[in-house]
Amino acid sequence: MRRVVISPALLDTQARLATGDHPVHKALAKLPPKQFDAIVLRGWMNKSAEEIAWYTGITTSTVDYHCRKARERLAQALGRTSRTKKAGRTTRKTKNQGE
User: Fold this and answer.
1) DSSP state of 27
2) E runs forming strands in the chain
3) Which residue from 11, 2, 60 is spatially nearest to 40, judged by alpha carbons?
4) What is the C-alpha to C-alpha distance for residues 71 and 48, in angstroms, rounded to an integer?
5) Residue 82 and residue 38: Cα distance in Å, rounded?
């Protein structure tokens, strides 16, 4: 029942984004369905992981996973580095190291 109510609205949103001109909209529209649902419900509709889990019938940790993967895909599609990756991380000098 939950998916019956939510899915048509999300599919309509995805179809409208696919026809838009903005690169972010096009990248969002190309996300896999579960990632699209999670990122739109969380980012645009301000739903919590618990609400999204209830709506979609998955666990909150799976919601977090889909959101993280969606952000990674969006960053890649837009030619940006993802904040979730820790590549190139530098260490901070402590007081004693720099002296």
Assistant:
1) H
2) none
3) 11
4) 16
5) 17
Predicted TM-score of the model (pTM):
0.72
CB 3 within 8 A of CB 56: yes
Residues 4 and 12: beta-carbon distance below 8 Å: no
Cα–Cα distances (Å) from 49 to 24, 26, 67, in that order, read 22, 24, 10
- Alpha-carbon distance of 62 to 58, in angstroms, equals 6
pLDDT digits (tens, 9 = 90+) for 22-36: 999 999 999 999 999
The number of angstroms, rounded, from the C-alpha of 78 to the middle of its chain's C-alpha atoms is 13
Q: Per the structure block, which two tokens stand in for 89?
A: 């991380």
